[in-house]
Write a structure and sequence with these properties.
Order of helices and strands: EHEHEHEHH
CATH superfamily: Response regulator
CATH architecture: 3-Layer(aba) Sandwich
Distance between the termini: 8 Å
Strand content: 5-15%
Number of domains: 1
Number of helices: 5
Shape: globular
Strand order of the largest sheet: 2-1-3-4
Radius of gyration: 14 Å
C-alpha cells in the first residue's frame, strides 16, 4: 500500500456505516494526519445521517454536524487515497465501475485489519443494533489506524 494521506469510507447509501466510520476515525488519536471522508455508492440526492446512527454517535460524544451524503466519484481516486468498503460486493462494484479504482487503492475494512467478518449493515435494526455496529467499527478503526500509521 502506498503512503496513505486520505481515507474514504464508501458504503451503500452513505447514511450510516461510512459516516460512522469517518466520525470514529476522526475521533481516534493518530500519529499522522489524514483527510477522512464518507461517500455513498448509491446517492440520488443528499441525505442526512441516519437518525439512529446519529443517536449512537452523540451518545459516544461524537457529533457530525451538518452531515450530508455525497456519491463516490472518479475524482475521489487520487494519489494517496485509500477507499474502504464494508462488504466484498461493494468493493467489487467500486472496482468494476470506477476506472481509477484498483485492488491496491480499494480495500475491505475487515481484510485490512485482519478480521474474518464484514461489518454488518444495521439498517432497519434497533438503536442497540446500531450501537453494536458502532462498537465493531470502533475496534476495526483503531486497528486500521495502527496499520496506516505503521506504513
Amino acid at each position: 500500500m502506498n503512503k496513505v494521506s486520505r481515507v474514504i469510507f464508501a458504503v451503500g447509501s452513505g447514511t450510516t456505516r461510512a459516516p460512522m466510520a469517518t466520525a470514529i476515525f476522526l475521533a481516534t488519536p493518530r500519529k499522522r494526519q489524514y483527510v477522512c471522508e464518507a461517500r455513498g455508492l448509491v446517492v440520488q440526492f443528499p441525505e442526512p445521517l441516519n437518525q439512529k446512527a446519529d443517536a449512537v454517535l452523540i451518545s459516544k460524544g461524537i457529533d457530525l454536524k451538518d452531515y450530508s451524503t455525497k456519491k463516490l466519484t472518479e475524482s475521489d481516486f487520487t494519489d494517496g487515497t485509500l477507499v474502504i468498503a464494508m462488504e466484498k460486493s461493494q468493493r467489487d462494484k467500486i472496482i468494476s465501475e470506477y476506472e481509477n479504482a484498483t485492488e491496491d487503492n480499494t480495500k475491505l475494512l475487515n481484510e485490512l485489519v485482519g478480521e474474518e467478518l464484514e461489518v454488518m449493515d444495521p439498517y432497519g435494526g434497533s438503536v442497540q443494533t446500531y450501537g453494536l455496529c458502532y462498537e465493531v467499527l470502533k475496534v476495526s478503526i483503531e486497528k486500521l489506524i495502527k496499520v496506516l500509521d505503521a506504513d
